[in-house]
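Take a look at the protein record below and flag anything odd:
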Amino acid sequence: MTIDPDEFRAALGRFSSGVTVLTARDPDGADHGMTVSAFCSASLVPPLVLACIDHAADMEGVLRTASHFGLSILSEGQEALSRRFAELPSNRFDGVGYKRGESGVVLLDEALAHLQCRKVSRHEAGDHAIYVGEVEWTDYGDGSGRPLIYYRGGYAQLER
């Protein structure tokens, strides 16, 4: 039995997730980034994370050749950044504050945490590819910030 894609999406929408921006550099050194909510930890030892990227996304082609990628875990005040990196226009980085990790990946300012990852594998999964990265470096704030959350097709906030 095959479930209707809209029904599947509606059911999964009941699972809240944090919001990240995944970044990588193409072979020419150009920066690329996209909003990713399909992200999670996979292992503590070694420290592994995974991100699911739609085959239709430009980032999927960039990640195929990239050796590293960065993840910025967004705070509740960064909804505009999330929307910016979810849309298709070019020049996503214009006017955006960021630093670079040791591998050169972009890490967005004011994020709750940053991860710099070495790509270790890619797996096919339907209309997406799963990229697994070994976390080589992290930084994070003092824990006072609150996350940007995606729930039921929109942004939500934690109650205090």
